[in-house]
Amino acid sequence: MRRRILIVGGDAAGMSAASTARRGLGDAADVIVFERGTVTSYSACGIPYWVGGEVADRDDLVVRTPDEHRANGIDVRTRHEVVAMDAVAKRVLVRSPAGEEWEAYDDLVLATGAEPIRPDIPGVDAGSVFGVQSLDDGARVLHALGDVPAPTCAVVIGSGYIGLEMAEALVRRGLRTTVVDRADQPMRTLDPEMGELVARAMTATGIRLLMGHAVDEIVTRDGRVAGVRAGAHEIPADLVVLGLGVRARSDVARSAGLPTGPADAILTEPSQRVTGHPHVWAGGDCASSRHRLFDRPVHIPLGTHANKQGWVIGRNLAGHDAEFDGVVGTAITRICSREIARTGLGEADARDEGHDVVAAVVEGATRAGYYPGVGSLTVKLVADRADRRGPGAPIVGGEGAALRLHTLAPGGWTGKTVDDLVMCDLAYAPPFSPVWDPVQTAGRVLLGRM
Length: 450
Fold this sequence. Notes:
By secondary structure, the chain is α/β, with parallel strands linked by helices.
């Protein structure tokens, strides 16, 4: 009897698992994907650039369509939503346009993704309040931007990655845009001096920042968004974007008794098998990852992790012994004119984790100072005083700054010291770097302080 593998979710983790398992198992298994939407294998990370007009068309964000997956032997069923599961009987309840039906499995892969956090405040369910997690979400924002009369002002609640990327997109569309957050600075994962650099870039682009204020209400009039009230402030708004982060979409898993951890993420083993459930796997934004620097589960929803975890699941379904080795908190984005990257732990987080750390902030250049197009960048290097290994580093700068993180992230991953960083054989040519790259200059300053 052919093995039956059911996969819930048709984006990065789900389709990576499906494609890898299909290649490994051939005709020995049926691989069936239930996707509640209409598209598969798309780049959610590209949605702000589509909304902002830098990406012309929604289809540009779709890597592989359902029909292309079907041509590769994967049974993709769109508009099919899994609404319940029975881990004991090994079956899931699927809702489709034809009704509801229980589907049995030999192995089940949960790749249900994440959903935007919606604050419990009046007005949050109004029609012009948008979370941005799927292509359909992006399409709804664009539709709202095309309303008559056209919206002229927007508020973004929250100042994490997606919130700030969407704020820039709305400014590009000509809207007066305000970011409101209870935090004292944008991107609270950055230490204060680095967050200040981001704030300056945003205000220079025309984004208004209202920091240190919690949102009390989304004001509506005649059923439409009219503004946002935060303490004594009421900011006019025709539309509101939620940028408060996401939680794992794990309601079905939790209802079935599967274990969850931070942000409701499903707890898994390094194999991506769900803890305590040998025939259930989970990957992507609905699943937890092990943080290598403090060895506990975290929820860091990124497409890089999702694709790797899906690949691990597919390999294991095909009989291999693969593991996802964890994360160190590496992330990158561009906000207005600034590239922003970070890996590991910032200074405050490292101290909270019990590290006795030393930090150095260095301002440098993206190229040799005399080379045309040279830009500025700031590196903050943080390392443990005792073992000289990095808890982490953020970088903020102009074009060419952020990918220097690819020098620093492997060091945190492998446990290299600041001494190793300073003496590492990095490439040099005037169009790319000064003779001493700023990350190595930061390492030298840090060694002097140790």
